[in-house]
Amino acid sequence: MLGFLKKEKNEVVAPVKGVCIPIEKVQDPVFSSKMMGDGFAVIPEDDTVVAPVSGEIVMLPASRHAFGLRTKAGMEVLVHIGIDTVSLNGEGFTVLASQGARVHAGDPVIRIDRSLISGKGFDLTTMVIFTEGYEKQVVLDAFGKTVKAGEAVLA
User: Fold this and answer.
1) 104 an active-site residue?
2) What is the CATH number of domain 10-154?
């Protein structure tokens, strides 16, 4: 009845089902060196990539290989699907939500064709990078474990 008085949760959820790894283990120095910010990654075992936080989709390039979110509190999060997948120019990616949309953590944003993309030799490791507004070091109990899309990994 008084749902409008509920405070928005600030949890971060896994963007896709798969094995969660530290960002330092990603096979791309731009991400593993934390040049863009700290975060974590998941090696996908499923095709649906969800919003890791609740907020507005503020960036969704035509290549559909990534999306950016901004929470009400101003935290900015980048979800980058795969390594060098921008060169696919959108092939293998289906957008399920649009730029400007408000999403909740766990809402589907992009569907990937894993067999097509990995068949072309691309690493589909999916990174969640805190580009603004998150200053703590990212250390998760989930590292090395299989997580489900939408499962809380950081509170």
Assistant:
1) no
2) 2.70.70.10
Torsion of CA 27, 31, 32, 34, to 10 degrees: 180
Domain ranges of the chain: 10-154
What are phi and psi for residue 43, nearest 5 degrees?
Answer: -90, 110
CA distance 151 to 48: 13
Tokens 């990534």 belong to 66
Round to whole Å and give the CA distance between 42 and 20: 4
Q: What pLDDT score was predicted for residue 3? A: 46
DSSP 89: T
Task: Note if the pTM is more than 0.90.
Answer: yes
Sequence-separated (6 or more) residues with CB below 8 Å from residue 2: none
**Which among 17, 65, 70, 80 is annotated as catalytic?**
80
Using CA atoms, how far residue 68 sits from 59, 82, 129, 144, in Å, is 5, 15, 9, 25
In the predicted model, residues of the chain with pLDDT beneath 50 are 1-7
